[in-house]
Amino acid sequence: MSRRIHNDRRKCLKLKMLLDFWDKRDRTIVLCSILSGVLLLVRQNAIAVPINWIGCLLIGSVWLSSPASDPKIFWRVGFNYIMTMVAAVLIPVRYGDMVGLAICQLVLSIFTSIILFLFPSPSACPITGPYHFIGTTSFTLDLKTVGVHEEGIDHKLDFYNNTLSVQCWFPIEYENASSDFYWRLFGSRALLWTSGKQSEQYYESVELLKQIAINFKIPNLVLRHHSLSRMNSIWQYDLSKIRKGNNKMPIAIYSHGMYGWRQIASSTCENLASYGFLVFACDHTPDCMLTRPIGQRNQFKPFDYFPPKGCSDFEERYFYGCGVNRRVNNLQQLLDFITSGSLEKRYPTLVNRLDFEKICVWGHSFGANTVTSLSCVDYRPSKVIALDAWMYPMPNHIRQRGIQNAALLSLSAHQWPYAKV
């Protein structure tokens, strides 16, 4: 087994070297443009020609590897692309001084460098576990609505309480990580904060970034380049390609905070999967930034969870306390699906592979309250991690019960404004 893991690491290192190189394409193109401008100033036109051709080749690779031919996602470097291609055409057919072109290239390249510095593109966090190839899939779980009630928003719950959008991460075999040349060169990894499904992920990314821009009141354009960022995980249509082994897999479930979404902690979920965990996360609608059920574009639901206007502090706490009950109900029904055999029935490769004695739940802010409350009313979680927990709206009947069967680790930053109980 150790030799097999070592071989996987060596193969993954080769892939990461290729993918990391292509992640730095924009900087390389800008560098080519700067070198070309300097060479034109010193009248070394013959050397500037291949430099610009290299830039054009890199631009072609960027275009081929982009998830969509949308010029808005290239807003940071689009003008530099155009200047590089113009220079590649003009320099071979013109002779003599080209000071004007050189100055244009240098000025535009310096401006582009500043833009790239101010608006960087996120990159995937390195995988630290022994299993370096991570698969991901998404599905919608039908929920029971019995006992779910929220003061002030009952008229919105018809859709919200009937379905639960779930993302799952798990280790896969290297042979199943599409190893053809195109994947090695350009990557078929999941786009940042999406389900990873090739036919849906770009639309999911655009809609989520649009909603984030609306929430923070910033121009949508300044976030569009995030649609080029990719995670480590690779889309799988089901869990049939999960890594084989004799050891049972522990289970981890993540609960996002208010204004979060199920893939917001993708890097952590991928790293847990790299250690052999089967990881789940769900959208807690309606306090999710944007609920995006897989393959159901007409069912996307933006954040819509506001306390009634003019309510007292007591009424506000009661309102959010009802939200805790709803969130706990989401996680309990997800746990029911996992532990009752329904998950194994849907994915037979998981039969006798899951360790129900090792169920870890963790969350951030409102999600930390959710997982702590879950451990007070449910015996199945064995470990609870609460990050920057917002405990204020925890219902009194849950506080009085206390944690039933789990070990609790609570971590809060000193500057976190809602860390107080």
- The N- to C-terminal Cα distance equals 47 Å
Number of E strands: 11
Helix content: 40-55%
User: Mind telling me the CATH superfamily name of the largest domain?
Assistant: Alpha/Beta hydrolase fold, catalytic domain
Q: How many separate domains?
A: 2
In terms of DSSP E residues, the strand content is 15-25%
Estimate the global geometry from the Cα principal axes.
elongated
Structural class: alpha/beta
- Average pLDDT number: 84
Number of helices, counting only DSSP H or I runs of 4 residues or more: 13
Largest sheet: 9 strands, mixed
CATH fold type of the largest domain:
Rossmann fold
- Which regions are unreliable across 5 or more consecutive residues at pLDDT < 50? 1-6, 8-22, 151-159, 179-187, 415-421
Q: Can you tell me the CATH architecture of the largest domain?
A: 3-Layer(aba) Sandwich
- Across the major sheet, the strand order is 3-4-1-2-6-5-9-10-11
Provide the CATH top-level class of the largest domain: Alpha Beta
State the order of secondary-structure elements, H for helix, E for strand: HHHHHEHEHEHEEHEEEHHEHEHE
Model description:
With 421 residues, this protein is α/β, with parallel strands linked by helices. It has two domains: 2-118, no CATH class; 134-411, Rossmann fold (3-Layer(aba) Sandwich), CATH 3.40.50.1820. It has 13 helices and eleven strands. Helix 2 runs antiparallel to helix 5 (99-118) and helix 3 (45-65) packs antiparallel against helix 4. The protein starts with a helix and ends in a 10-residue tail after the last strand.
